[in-house]
């Protein structure tokens, strides 16, 4: 297939942790003239708006994740999965993809099963240390599993390729944003606090005392609250803290930061590793299989980050974390620099294109 035009179906849904790696790979596929991509997601989650806005052909499936309590909805969803599977088989016949790849989320199930049905080359990408249930199930039906952590290959029985996370490669190539353009002092340490694209109300409330009373002549803080919490925090007046609802070019600004305080989502971790940034990771306890805890623990055990569990988060534990990082900054940065830097998008796309 090397040198030929390829048609690829990409599927991922639900969260940025699935969608943004998919987008990085799509960019790489489309950088070679003539290639075509069709994105299959849900009708009602963030990808249904984000992907069409980028001009990428999109098909939405009417499908929901299984719940443990809403039995009537689960019964209905069995029908929706079967209906989506039929729709995906029709798409395979009409679009005739050369390759199908899923990046996680329940929407990938009918898509990849349909690809398997028609013997189309297909793969999944697993971003987290502890794989999700959908990917574990689908690994029996796809040719290849791309993984972000070396130890992931213990969970999969097909061809496993250590690719890393495409968001890390994208962070390296993103243009650095000079922090002084946002009013920060070039001679002070910059700490960025961000809890994902939507923020976290629970974490924000635990940080209110910290950002209100923060005083340090050598450090400044950028606190990204997320849209839902911004109004509540916008009245805080502290010369050392800048509070914003979001930052468009966060990867570029992270390059100028000295410490990142964040959740332990796979995409964020991949950016932190790629940019060699010391971090304080606060795993979300609300995610499936508590996978963020295991993501953060992997880094903590290698002295690549400092970890605080949400239940232990307060001003004192945060100050302890910052103090630890600054005392061990040189060693931590050296450890980060010694971590392998994988060109994930390139590895994945080269496999798709048979290079």
Order of strands across the main sheet: 3-2-1-4-5-6-7
Figure out the total of helices.
14
The whole-angstrom Rg is 21 Å
General form: globular
Instruction: Note the run of SSEs as H and E.
Output: EHEHEHEHEHEEHEHEHEHEHEHEHHH
Helix content: 40-55%
- Mean model confidence by pLDDT: 89
Could you give the count of β-strands? 13
Termini separation: 8 Å
Helix/strand structural class: alpha/beta
The unreliable regions are none
The main sheet comes to:
7 strands, parallel
Proportion of strand residues: 15-25%
Walk me through this protein's architecture.
The chain has helices at 16-30, 47-53, 71-95, 108-117, 133-138, 166-173, 201-213, 227-233, 250-254, 266-275, 291-301, 315-327, 329-338, 344-352; strands spanning 7-11, 36-42, 58-61, 99-102, 121-126, 144-147, 159-162, 189-194, 219-224, 241-244, 259-262, 279-281, 306-307. By secondary structure, the protein is of the alpha/beta class. The protein has a 7-stranded parallel beta sheet, sandwiched between helices. It has a 6-stranded parallel beta sheet with strand order 10-9-8-11-12-13, sandwiched between helices. The N and C termini lie close together (8 Å).
């Amino acid at each position: 297939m090397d040198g030929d035009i390829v048609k690829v179906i990409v599927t991922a849904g639900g969260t940025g942790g699935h969608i943004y790696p998919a987008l990085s790979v799509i960019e790489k596929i489309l950088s070679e003239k003539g290639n075509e991509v069709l994105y299959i997601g849900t009708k009602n989650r963030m990808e249904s708006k984000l992907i069409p806005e980028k001009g990428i052909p999109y098909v939405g499936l009417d499908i929901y994740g299984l719940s443990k309590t809403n039995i009537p909805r689960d019964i209905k969803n069995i029908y929706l999965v079967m209906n989506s599977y039929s729709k995906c088989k029709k798409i395979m016949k009409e679009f005739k993809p050369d390759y199908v790849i899923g990046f996680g989320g329940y929407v990938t199930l009918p898509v990849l099963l349909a690809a398997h049905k028609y013997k189309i080359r297909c793969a999944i990408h697993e971003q987290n240390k502890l794989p999700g249930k959908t990917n574990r199930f689908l690994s029996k039906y796809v040719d290849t599993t791309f993984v972000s952590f070396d130890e992931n290959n213990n969970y999969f029985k097909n061809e496993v390729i250590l690719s890393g996370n495409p968001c890390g490669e994208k962070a390296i190539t993103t243009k650095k944003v000079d922090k002084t353009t946002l009013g920060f002092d070039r001679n002070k340490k910059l700490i960025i606090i961000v809890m994902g694209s939507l923020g976290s109300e629970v974490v924000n409330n635990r940080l209110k005392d910290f950002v209100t009373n923060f005083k340090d002549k050598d450090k400044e803080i950028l606190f990204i609250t997320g849209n839902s919490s911004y109004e509540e925090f916008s009245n805080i007046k502290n010369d050392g803290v800048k509070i914003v609802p979001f930052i468009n070019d966060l990867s570029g600004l992270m390059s100028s930061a000295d410490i990142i305080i964040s959740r332990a989502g796979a995409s964020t971790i991949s950016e932190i590793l790629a940019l060699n940034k010391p971090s304080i990771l606060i795993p979300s306890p609300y995610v499936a299989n508590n996978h963020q805890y295991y993501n953060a623990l992997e880094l903590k055990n290698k002295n690549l980050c400092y970890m605080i569990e949400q239940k232990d988060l307060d001003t004192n534990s945060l100050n302890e974390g910052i103090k630890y990082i600054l005392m061990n900054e040189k060693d931590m940065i050296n450890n980060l620099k010694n971590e392998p830097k994988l060109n994930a998008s390139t590895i994945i796309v080269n496999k798709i294109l048979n290079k």
